[in-house]
Amino acid sequence: MLSYTEAKSGISYEIVKDPLYGYITLFEHEKEIIDTPIFQRLRRIKQLPSAHYVYPGATHTRFSHSLGVMHLSGLFLKQLLEPYVRQMAEEEFLHYYFLVRLWGLTHDLGHGPFSHIFDKAVLEELKLNHEYMSSKIVQEDNDIVSIIENKLKDFSITPRTLSEYLGKSREEWSEAKMLGKTEHSEAAFYYILKGFYSTDVIDYLLRDNLFTGAGYGNFDWQRLILSSYLLKDEVALERKSRDALDAFLISRLFSFNTIYYHRWSRAIDHMMKSFLIKAKEKIDFESYAKNVKEYKKLDEESIMNMTELKGIPEFEMLANRIIPFRRVYEVRLDASAVPFLDEDDLSALISEKLNGRLPSDAYFVDTPKLPLCPMIGEEEVCLIDMATSPPEVTRELIRETSWGDVHYSVWTIRLYLDIKYKENREELTEAFKAIVKGETKLRTHF
Amino acid sequence: MRLLVLTASYFEKVEGRKHFQKAIYLLQEQFGIEFNYNFVPYLYGPYSSQLQNDIDILARTGHLRACKAGYLFFYEITPLGRKIASQVEVEYGKERSANLKKEVDNLKDFDTQELVDWSKKLMSEKVKDNIFW
């Protein structure tokens, strides 16, 4: 059902059914973008590249996630802006409405095969990442450019406007316009897709839990959105909805432990990374990344059909789910620890201790870049008490909220060994234990 | 991340994430300091999400004090951060530490906009295919 303003835009629409939200509206220009080859390739990029090897149901893709984020972003934007429709022109409202929905729709367009692993193994070396590639595609893919230029002119949306939304870091939102005659600024929209309880995070928690069957996606996302209000250049959450925020935090915490940092998934991630690193010797990924016409040919099906890659050992392992690595040791650290040594540092220290008695590809150390517990950062939530007059506003660090203070492991360092070398397990484990327990003086690798 | 603590101690205070990001980019790419961060072109110049993660971790663990004013984050080295920095300084070596300090002192003369312009110019030379600027 369209709102009055949406209907007045005069843009025709269709509906599509989503397992999480029921019917999702697709406006004409959105459907045209979805139907472009570069968007359709998202059907061939899994949302979680390795989880389906562990959870057979986790075959959902970036395609359905992108539609979900678009839908939620539209709902979030309406919740924030609708109280001010009398203080802004209808065109301005629709400009932001369609822009924010498109931002959600296109935010993952730049992902390559195996998503974040492609970022690490391929794009980083080229000084790129998937976010940059999304911005590039929106500005350079002829189909998308032509749809935006022809269909969204009346709403003052250009490929450049959308590309800027996709390519702005946190502080860069500060230079935003005021919204109509209100005291609020466009900068608040940062929170829709990038804030703590963003549409991106809400959708991936709900979707990943549904398709893995992990079962931790049960939080009241509607309440989070419906209790959000514009507050100058921020979004404030109604204080009485803190329980919904807590449930969201718990879902995030358990999903990180159960799904994203699953020990088998991380082993497969490592194999995918090795596969892509070896693939770079045979494929010129830079030429793909430079040209969106070429980039659209890259997805998880096409890469697994490249004959020149079939000789890479990891190709067979991935095709047949052969996982040679076993976790042989794990250390969990609390929030007071500082992970000064990354996985390369630790591997170098192990190699030094073993003095060449084990080849470097026989083992690896896994230290996730993001903390296991999502509640420990410097993220703040702005809370507003609508029952007081004027509404009272307070700010709290997420880690100081009731569930943010939960005692939980924050960093996991895991040691994996190729089972071919199982006779070296004890020696390797002892070397690792000595390093992480500080039994030897830690050398600092800069 | 240890090298970041040492650098932050030489800066003492950094006004804004943008300033921090561009200063580290210039130290790494212009002056060859071995941070190994991956910077990507963003709308207002080079940006590294890994660097931002590391800054957040140092703030959370009490090595940096972070104060927020509107959209700006101000960072200041804490006594704990200073203590770690003095250990890192010894491990990093006298000559290399002196060189880092000299470059940091030079960068202190530049405001955020000047750092943005400089880092954009430098990145444009390194990344030819840049859609933003």
Report on this model:
- The complex is a heterodimer of chains A (446) and B (133).
- Helix content of chain A is 44%, strand content 12%.
- In chain A, strands 3-4-7-8 form a four-stranded mixed sheet.
- Chain A starts with a helix and ends in a 10-residue tail after the last helix.
- Chain A has 446 residues and is of the alpha+beta class.
- Chain A has 20 helices and nine strands.
- Chain B has 133 residues and is α+β, with helices and mostly antiparallel strands.
- Chain B has a single domain, classed as Arc Repressor Mutant, subunit A.
- Chain B contains six helices and five strands.
- The model of chain B has no long low-confidence stretch (mean pLDDT 91).
- The interface between A and B is large, with 39 and 42 residues.
Shape of chain B: globular
- SS elements, strand count of chain B: 5
- Major beta sheet of chain B, specifics? 3 strands, antiparallel
By CATH, the architecture of chain B is named: Orthogonal Bundle
DSSP summary: helix tally of chain B: 6
CATH architecture heading of the domain at 4-264 in chain A: Orthogonal Bundle
What strand order characterises the main sheet of chain B? 1-5-4
Q: Greatest chain-chain interface?
A: A-B, 39 and 42 residues
Oligomer: heterodimer
- Per the CATH scheme, the topology name of the domain at 4-264 in chain A is Hypothetical protein af1432
Provide a concise account of the structure shown.
By secondary structure, chain A is α+β, with helices and mostly antiparallel strands. Helix content of chain A is 44%, strand content 12%. Chain A has a domain at 4-264: Hypothetical protein af1432 (Orthogonal Bundle).
